[in-house]
Structures are given as structure tokens and as C-alpha cells.
Sequence to fold (252 residues):
Amino acid sequence: MIITDTHFPDETIELLAGMESIAVLTGAGISAESGVATFRDKDGLWSRFNPAELASMDGFLANPQLVWDWYQYRRGIIDSVQPNPGHRALAEMEELFPRFTLSTQNVDRLHQSAGSRKVLELHGNIIDNFCVDCRKTFEFPTGEIEEIPRCECGGLIRPSVVWFGEMLPEDVLRASDMAARQAQVYFSIGTSAEVFPAAQLPLIAQNHGAVLVEINPHETQLSSVADFSLRMPAGEALPALVERIKQIRAAQ
Ligand code: OAD
Fold:
């Protein structure tokens, strides 16, 4: 069912309000209303930058300084923005349901800034860094380091994001997979659902009996299989959903 405004049917909200186990996958779209560019929209990062150069180990080894500069540029943007009502509504949802798991493909840490307590970062994060040789981890103040830093062992230091061709952190993927299998409702929010294995999670959930809800102003690969497709920005849909759930619970 496609829903294009926030007048969600009462029966749907009543059903949702009574659920015990919710799992969520977010993508770049949830941060769009904070001013962070997505990847595959018309003006997205991958229309302006080359992922092979900037988001792969081969690209990094070919030009480490270029890759470092790009991540410093993105850190600068992320440092200057705030979580939006969509992030905040998800933080509130964590408190409303007995079992709630939030998996994100985003590296911007805006879910945590909004108050989400437990966030499974499938693609790592842009704040931490590690040495490609000895794996020691580092956190630097944003913007202060122009030249790519080196570890005391001599190795190059790179951001702790998952690049193309790399494995996702095993424990994070396992926990996300488990949550998908156990969810009664699975939300896919602000993701084009094109990058695997993250894109598999909503389908795993649905195959295990979850109601699949997509929130995205545009149609994606997932839209045709989603049980509910909320065609609107996450910053509008999520606060409205949370408000209605609270109203229904209060009236019960
Ligand atoms: P994409 O850029 O592929 O997709 C973003 C989605 O967000 C699109 O489907 C938009 O329609 C939707 N969108 C835009 N504004 C929105 C809003 N206000 N509310 C809800 N949805 C909105 O980003 P991801 O799916 O996150 O990987 O991309 C997945 C991965 O590809 C990223 O994690 C990144 C990238 O390569 C790595 O960097 C490893």
C-alpha cells in the first residue's frame, strides 16, 4: 500500500502500537534533512565524486592524501549539522518498544547525537580512524589535520568506514541479521536498498514474517515488495508515526 500523507489509518497505528519487536535499517536519506548529501540522488555524492577513487582500498593506496582530504571535507560538513526530527523520532521509538534494533548504513553518528542509545553501524563511522598496518585506532579533532597522518609504526591512517570490496563488521552484521529475523515490523528508511548485504536485511525480515514498511519520498527496488510504502521524507513520517503511537497508547 502506498501512503502519501501522514493521516495514517487508525488500524495500522493500533497494530504497530501493540508490537513488541521492531527493527530498522536507515540510509543516507534520513540525514538528508540535516543537510548531509545522499549518494545516489540526482545531486548525490556519487554523481560528483568517484567511489573507486574515494571509497576503496585501491583508491586509498593510489592517492591517500586525496582520500584523507575528502573525508576531512565530509567530517567538516557532519560536524556543522544537527540531527533532524527523523533521527529524534527513532531515538524516541527505542523507548516505546520492548525490543528495538536500529541498524544504519550511515557513518555520520547523527542517530547517536539524537539520543539513540544502541546503533549498529554497518558501514563503520567517519569519526574514528585506524592504521592500515597495525590496526591501532585514532580519533583526531576535526579539521586540524591537513596532511594524512601516519601511525608511530609508519603505517597510513585511514577512516573507519567500510569501503567497497570490504567486509562489514561481523558482529554488527550478525546482530542486524538476528534483529531482522525476529522483527514483527521492519522499517527501511532513507535507503535506495542497492548496497548489499545491508539491502538484504529488509527482505530477510519480510521472509521471516515481518511487516515491511518503507519510508522514502521516491520509489526504490524495495517499494514493490514493501507492505507499506510511505512516500514522504523521514523527518515528516517518523515524528507523525511516533505521535500517533503515543496517542493510541494513552487512549488505551
Ligand atoms: P543512497 O544515496 O543510495 O539512497 C538514499 C535514499 O534516500 C534514496 O532512495 C532517496 O530517495 C532517499 N531520500 C532522500 N531524501 C530523503 C528523506 N528526506 N527521507 C527519506 N528518504 C530520503 O544512500 P544509501 O542507501 O544509504 O556506503 O547508500 C548505501 C551505501 O552506499 C552508503 O552507506 C554508502 C554508499 O556507497 C559506503 O560508503 C560504504
